[in-house]
TrEMBL record:
Localisation per UniProt entry: Membrane
Protein's UniProt keywords contain Repeat: no
PANTHER family reported in the protein's UniProt record: CYTOCHROME P450 26, STEROID (22S)-HYDROXYLASE
GO biological process terms held by the UniProt record: steroid biosynthetic process
Organism this protein belongs to: Nelumbo nucifera
Annotated protein name in UniProt: Cytochrome P450 90B1
Length: 519
């Protein structure tokens, strides 16, 4: 008993100090005009309801109820922290554009634990800028045109040519295979099909499950397994790195690999630990997102025959022109001709919302539209809520690639929009300015152009070579990461070509009747 009293006396100054800090915070909060909202349970807040899975083409019940109750800006307690949630397009832009000045990237600690403390998602300030420069340099426009486009096409064909007539396959897994192989080649010159590449792919699956799971580091949990996978993956990357350093030192080794690993070793002063985290997180950022986007496009298109038909017509035109010119590989001019394809890409990203929100924190007291956002509070700009807002996008639940067509005509005089009547009442400028599938400001996705290129090239060969239907009903869910629970099983039918040896054939037998029904 005496010991307990002694302990209490010992702790009481700290308890008192904590209580005083709490009182001061509460007093400050009372004088502030915080947005309306509900802070939920102590510590847990409203996190469980916020993370409850829902259809990826909706904002989910939590968001819907909170917006109708409190408006587009509300307070909550999420991920253990007081948070301002924003479904307001203006505030979202304001947050992203003021990165480093008023707000700062702030992902949950568990993300840093798994992606590494040098991961770009976690870094802020000068170190983030340096890592970002390396990534941007490596995905520059010049590299996209000269180096990446042929690689993207090669990896697309590798996957598509493995599909057997009338077979059923998981579109999501096939898309992952494509984006993983591409990234592994581009980053570390690892070839698809080789033992080490396949082993790395397998480890990555476990790793990914942990990135998106609850951060419970207990034996057997997905997070715990992912941390183990992280060290296995890092060992593989480190081995590749040591191999490369040996080759670079070896005077006889003339050939230098044109990949990210070679580039960072030669042109940067990064430490081994930094290089490992950079590569691990680029592999993650670069394959997970674009594969989901491709699966979503496959899903939306099978449900919208009119869009699929127009897409196929666009690609047939390109394929015929290439055949006439005696060319066999796609080039940048072909890519630029894919105007409707870009509408399909934008619409897929708008409706599917691969990255639904990002994590930020206020680093200063901020006032916005009469509300106070206290320094230290988490801020979540929810892009999905804006992309699915009927005041910005007409019939937002409807897959309508034509809504983007006027944007293209206004930025390029060569467009021959025949479906402009389908464009809704919302102004194109409003749609564009509020469209943020790749985030924005100083942290705008470094791979956005590569992602669009991957989607366009994959769709080009897909629609020219295959028809498909859902083998089983499946739909995308937001966990909040987007995933098809059954992997999106599709049954594929090869489109008959007269000459199977070439990718391009003007004799593709398709009925391209005009359908008058919208999808
Ligand atoms: C459809 C596919 C993709 C989507 C929807 C997407 C979305 C995003 C978003 C929203 C962010 C901002 C995160 C934040 O602000 O906190 C981001 C960042 C990033 N993305 Fe992507 N991404 C895609 C594909 C790619 C690809 C193919 C790469 C290539 C490696 C890539 C590399 C990155 C990197 C390095 C960052 C961090 C940028 C920085 O912090 O400066 N992404 N991405």
């Amino acid at each position: 008993m005496a010991a307990e009293i002694e302990l209490l006396l010992l702790l009481s100054p700290s308890i008192l100090a904590l209580f005083l800090v709490w009182l001061l915070i509460k007093r400050k909060e009372r004088t502030l005009k915080l947005p309306p909202g509900n802070m939920g349970w102590p510590f847990l807040g409203e996190t469980i309801s916020y993370l409850k899975p829902y259809s990826a083409t909706s904002v989910g019940e939590f968001m819907e109820q909170h917006i109708s109750r409190y408006g587009k800006i509300y307070k909550s307690n999420l991920f253990g922290e007081p948070t301002i949630v924003s479904a307001d397009a203006g505030l979202n832009r304001f947050i992203l554009q003021n990165e480093g000045r008023l707000f700062e990237c702030s992902y949950p600690r568990s993300i840093g634990g798994i992606l590494g403390k040098w991961s770009m998602l976690v870094l802020v300030g000068d170190m983030h800028r340096d890592m970002r420069m390396i990534s941007l340099n490596f995905m520059s426009n010049v590299r996209l045109r000269t180096h990446l486009l042929p690689e993207v096409e090669r990896h697309t064909l590798l996957v598509l040519r493995s599909w057997k007539e009338n077979s059923t396959l998981s579109a999501q897994d096939e898309a992952k295979k494509f984006t993983f192989n591409l990234m592994a080649k581009h980053i570390m010159s690892m070839d698809p099909g080789k033992l080490e590449t396949e082993q790395l792919k397998k480890e990555y699956i476990t790793f990914m499950k942990g990135v998106v799971s609850a951060p419970l580091n207990l034996p057997g949990t997905a997070y715990w397994k992912a941390l183990r996978s992280r060290s296995t993956i890092l060992k593989v990357i480190e081995r590749k790195m040591e191999e490369r350093i040996r080759h670079m030192r070896d005077e006889c080794e003339r050939r230098e690999e044109d990949d990210l690993l070679g580039w960072v070793l030669k042109h940067s002063n990064l430490s081994t630990e930094q290089i490992l985290d950079l590569i691990l997180s680029l592999l993650f950022a670069g394959h997970e997102t674009s594969s989901v986007a491709i699966a979503l496009a496959i899903y939306f298109l099978q449900d919208c025959p009119k869009a699929l038909q127009q897409l196929r017509e666009e690609h047939l035109k390109i394929a015929r022109a290439k055949k006439q010119a005696g060319e066999s590989q796609l080039n940048w001019d072909d890519y630029k001709k894919m105007e409707f394809t870009h509408c399909v890409i934008s619409e897929t990203l708008r409706l599917g919302n691969v990255v639904r929100f990002v994590h930020r924190k206020a680093i200063k007291d901020v006032r916005y539209k009469g509300y106070d956002i206290p320094s230290g509070w988490k801020v979540l700009p929810v892009f999905a809520a804006v992309h699915l807002d009927p005041s910005t996008y007409d019939h937002p639940q409807h897959f309508n690639p034509w809504r983007w067509q006027q944007n293209i005509s206004s930025s390029s005089s060569s467009s021959n929009s025949s479906n402009s009547s389908s464009v809704g009442a919302n102004s194109n400028a409003t749609m564009s300015i509020n469209f943020m599938p790749f985030g924005g400001g100083p942290r705008l996705c470094a791979g956005s152009e590569l992602a669009k290129l991957e989607m366009a090239v994959f769709m080009h060969h897909l629609v020219l070579n295959y028809q498909w239907e859902l083998a089983e009903s499946d739909h995308a869910l937001a966990y909040p990461f987007v995933d098809f629970p059954k992997g999106l099983p599709i049954k594929v039918h090869k489109i008959q070509h007269h000459h199977t040896t070439t990718s391009y054939d003007s004799n593709i037998h398709l009925t391209l009747n005009s359908l008058s029904l919208p999808c």
